[in-house]
Write a structure and sequence with these properties.
This protein is mostly helical and about 130 residues long. It is about 80% helix and about 0% strand. Helix 1 packs parallel to helix 3 and helix 4 packs across helix 7. The protein is globular, with a radius of gyration of 14 Å. The relative contact order is 0.12.
Length: about 130
Amino acid sequence: MLQNHNYPSTGWTLHNLGQVYSSLGKTEQAQEYYKRAFNIRKKVRDRRGVGWTLHNLSELFYNQQQYDLALATLLVAQKIFEEAQSQASMTVQTSIDDLDSKIGDKSFNRLLSKIKPQADQIVEQTLSKKAP
């Protein structure tokens, strides 16, 4: 098992393992690796890495119909990429638009008004939890 050294390469490795497990349909394992990647990337101040991990996590939440968590992770990722003036913010916007299309404008706007003011806190609470 990988040790939690606070090095950027460990964050990338954990993120990539999350992608592998996600592609295999092993959602729980993917989420756990993404969570670990998020926490390490945050510690080493790898902002773009945090953004990509959040974007990938949003896909898992979306597929599990956890639209509140999907939107929260997307909003935080979007903010990170906009601050970095990264083109990745357009990728995140596409995912937000997809969520809007999936649940409909009325439901999306209701969800957005509920989630947007507390997106950072939702993400921190969800991803800082220790695994059982």
